[in-house]
Amino acid sequence: MSPLPRGLSIAGTDPTGGAGLQADLKAIAAHDGYGMGVVTALVAQNTRGVRSVHVPDVGFLREQLDAVSDDVTVDAVKVGMLGTADVVRVVVDWLTEHRPPWLVVDPVMVASSGDRLLAPEAEAAMTELFALADLVTPNRHELRVLAGLAGAAPDDDPTATALAIARRWDVRVLAKGGHDDGATSDDALVAPDGSVRVFTAPRVETANTHGTGCSLSSAIATLVARDGDWELAVGGAKTWLGAALRGADALEVGHGHGPVDHGAAVRASLPPVRTTDRWWDDSTTVLDEVLDCAFLRTMADGTLDPDLFAGYLAQDVHYLRAYGQHLTALASRTDGQAAAFWAAAAEGCAAEARDLHHRRLAGTHADTPVHPVCAAYLAHLDAAAADPEVGVLAAAVLPCFQVYAWVGTQLHDALDPPGAVAGDAVPVGAVPGGAVPVGAVPVGAVPVGAVPVDHPFADWLTAYADPAFAASSARATEVVEDLAAQADPVTRGRMARAFRASVAHELAFFRMPVD
Question: Closest Cα partner for 387 from 483, 479, 478, 286?
C-alpha cells in the first residue's frame, strides 16, 4: 500500500470550492491522502445556492471510472452526489467489479433545507449502493428517507433510526447531530450488531457550514484507509471538522452560507512561516556568492591588501552616513519600541563609522569619492525611503544588519571551529557546514581561538561577529517582520523586492574593492 491513502471521490462539482468534489479533495489532502476525482455532475452553484446541474453522459462517467481503476490502486472511495438513477447504476456496476477496501457513501438525497435532490427512481437505485457500502453518512432529512427505503418507520431517536438502516443493509451508519440544538454536536456511529459509539464535540456557532457533509465523509474515508478502524476515523474526522468550522468565518468566501476552512487544523499544526525568513531563503544563491567573493576570502586568511581594505572602509563611511540618516527617518516614521530601536541603531551606526572606520582610516582616503557601486546602493535606499509605506524602507535597510551579522559569524566560525583546541590549525574540511569553501582559510594560516589579536582584520571580524550585533540584527528582523505582518500583499511585495535588491547591493559592495 502507498504510504499515503489513495482516495477516490465520485461526486458532483462546486465551482466555489466549498462542497462536492472540490471539498472532497481538500479534505483528503488535509488528512495526508492522495485525492482523485470522478465527476458525476457539473453543478453551477455558489454559497447562495444551486443554479443549474448538468449530468454528463453516463458512458463518459464509466470511462472516467475505468481510467482510474485501470491504472491506480484505490484504497478508499467516497461517493457523493449521483443525481440520476442511470448514474447510480453505473457507479454500482463499477464498484461491484472493483470493490475498494473501504467505501463511504454520503447519500446526497435531501438538502439541509429539506429539498429533495434525487428523483424517486434514483432513490430506489441507491439501495444497491448501500448494500456495497461500509459506512453511510446521512444528514437528518436523509436519515428519515433511508428509514423509509429500509421499510422502517422513522423514529424520533436518530440512533434507533440509524440502527434500522444499519440492519437492513448490513452497513454502519453515522447519524450526525450537526443540525440539532444544544451546546454539543453529537454524532452516533451505529453498527449492524447494535453497538453505538457517540462522538461529542462543542457546537460551533457559524452560518458557514457549506460542504460539511462532503468534507466529513471524505475525511473519514481517508482516515479509515490509513488507520483501519472506523471509530478512530470518525473521531479524527470530527475533531478536524470542528477546527474547520471554527475557522470558517475568517475565510470570508461568498455572501451566503460559506465553506468551512479545510486547512485550519493542518495550518495550526505547522510552525509559523516568517516573511523575513522567506526573503532570506530567497536570497540563498546571492548569499553563497557573498561568502565566496575574493574580498572576504582574503580578509579571512589575512592576505587582503590593506590599501584595498582601506578603500572599502572609505566607501563604507559614505554608506554609513547615509544609512544612519535612513535609520533616523525610520525612527521618525514609527513609534513605540520600534522607533526607539531605529533611533538607537542610528546612534550605533554613527559610532561604528567613528570608532572603527575613522580609526582604521586614520585620515587616509579622506577625499575618496563615492564609488558607483556605493552610489547605486544609496540610490536604492533613497528610492525605498520615498515609498509612502515605511515597511519598504525598513525592508531595504534590513540586509545591512542581517548580511553583516551573518558574514561576521561565518568568518569568525571559520577561524574558530566549534570543538577545536586553542592553538590548533584549521584542518581542511573543518569549516562548519561548508559555509566558507575549503581553502578560504588555509591550513595553519590562522590559529584557533577568539580572532587572534595579531590578525590584520581582527577588529572588523570581531565587530560583526559580536553577539551584541547579532542581537541588534535579530531585533531589526523582528521589527520588519511586524511591519510585513501589518502590510497588505502589494506592500509586502514591494518590501520583498526592496530586501532582495539590498542583498544584491551587499554582494556588489563586497566585490567592489577587488573587482
Answer: 483
